[in-house]
Amino acid sequence: MPEAVRVTCDLDLDPSDVIARKIVFAGEQASGSMLDCHGATIGTADLKSTPRAPTIAIRSVPKGRGEDRIWSAPSDITIRNCTIVGSLRLIGLGPNGEAEAVRRSSLTRDHTRNAQNAAPSGIVLDRLKFQATGGIPLYFGPGVTRTTLRNSRFLGKTAKTAIYLDAESASNDISGNTFAMKSVGRELIAVDGSARNVIANNTFRDPENGGIYVYRNCGEGGTIRHQKPQYNEISGNRFIYKEALTARPAIWLNQRDIGKIFCSTDPKYPFGSSLDSSDQAKHNIVRNNRFEGPWSLRIVNFDDTNRIVGNK
Known about the structure:
The chain is mostly beta strands. It is built from 3 helices and 32 strands.
């Protein structure tokens, strides 16, 4: 497999370009850089995309070892006008919540702060077209903050979600996007232990397996989830259904409070999901969302602290 290309400067592509190599923005040296594809394609159907080696990675880099280890985190990167075949993943302490460095950090009380300090921040993803090839097209890894996705489209088919906001991530903005991707068995956006995000003015076309679900995993991979999925805003979104006889809820707060399967593997510490395995999706705002097509179960919420207003 060709070696990935590391980007540390501004890069412009021609519209006809097809890049059959993976692209990596790694560490602080990539900060401030911009990739403008002008319509070009990154990735091919033959270029396998995995959690540890996605089509495009924006990742932090460890320096030192043991207690002396620090993380060089990229920030203020812009990627725009690209077709991405496979996935884009923002990676801090690890590619997901079960990574070893994430698990070790989760055993300390300062885990949320540590994860956020070690993760990419201030990333702008604009006018992208994601072509799913089976995995999660866009993954916000643990601790990712202040990242914006706008004016983008999700196409293709996957057995997973379109976007995953992993534990300890926060203050991200997902606005003005279109989800025309077929997800088999999963919701399109997962908000898992992620807080203070805005998910607004997006269009979901036939989200029969669910639209936006807010919850907090417990114990999966032996990792304690610290941050509660609170103070998120879900507003102005449009859900368009072809039929609704088998459709799952469009928006579901505290979705994992039913049927948690990993809590028994949560380490026994007096904080986070180890202390309380409930989802704790409270103080979220769900307002002015629109539902079109046959009637379906649209919003599920059993917590009075969440504000549910103006939805039709």
